[in-house]
Amino acid sequence: MKTVWVFLADRILDNETVQQLRGEVRSFLADWKDHGKPIRSSLDVVNNAYFIVVADEERVDGCPTDDLYAFFKELGGRYGTDFLNRSVVGYIDGERQFRLTTLDELPRLYQEGKINDETLFYNHVVNTPEELSDWLRPLRRLWVARFARRPVQAQ
């Protein structure tokens, strides 16, 4: 069994930045250890925003997980992006383009018809490769739907 972590940037990154980040994350993963034992892991980058780390071990928690989150926090600080902001979500718009938005923006997008219950959203709350294989789902099947259907707040 493998363990998955999904880190979503709060903006879509340019190709050059993704290449730099990919190198830094791979260097971190090459030295990543659990109580002195190397953790076999891999990295995938999707849509220049999702950084997906997969560890071959069934269970990686405690210090190694803390180290991974601290690394992404520090990395984000250096590159001017936030990989730990859980209010950012990704979706595919009606023109089949990848977009990022925030949970606060979902009601407006929903009311304006820019998204609907069938709009495909990425479920970045996954823990296993099996869950990751089904992470692109219609809004109606995801936890974020309750945010989209809220009344739009007056500014």
CATH architecture heading of the largest domain: 2-Layer Sandwich
Q: What letter string, H or E per element, gives the SSE order?
A: EHEEEEHEEHEHEH
Number of helices: 5
- Span between N and C termini? 47 Å
CATH top level of the largest domain is Alpha Beta
Mean pLDDT: 93
Features:
four-stranded antiparallel beta sheet; 155 residues; three-stranded antiparallel beta sheet; 5 helices
Write the layout of secondary structure elements.
Layout: E1 3-8, H1 15-31, E2 33-34, E3 37-38, E4 41-46, E5 50-55, H2 63-79, E6 88-92, E7 98-102, H3 106-111, E8 120-122, H4 129-132, E9 136-138, H5 145-148
Antiparallel strand pairs: 1-5, 2-3, 4-5, 6-7, 6-8, 8-9
Helix pairs in contact: 1-2
Describe the overall structure.
With 155 residues, the chain is α+β, with helices and mostly antiparallel strands. It has two domains: 3-79, 2-Layer Sandwich (TATA-Binding Protein), CATH 3.30.310; 88-148, no CATH class. Helices cover 31% and strands 25% of the residues. The protein contains five helices and nine strands; from the N terminus they run βαββββαββαβαβα. The chain has helices spanning 15-31, 63-79, 106-111, 129-132, 145-148; strands at 3-8, 33-34, 37-38, 41-46, 50-55, 88-92, 98-102, 120-122, 136-138. A four-stranded antiparallel β-sheet has the order 7-6-8-9, with no helix packed on it. A three-stranded antiparallel β-sheet has the order 1-5-4, with helices on one face. A hairpin with a 5-residue loop joins strand 6 and strand 7. The longest helix is centred in the N-terminal third of the chain and has 17 residues, at 15-31. It is globular, with a radius of gyration of 17 Å. The mean pLDDT is 93.
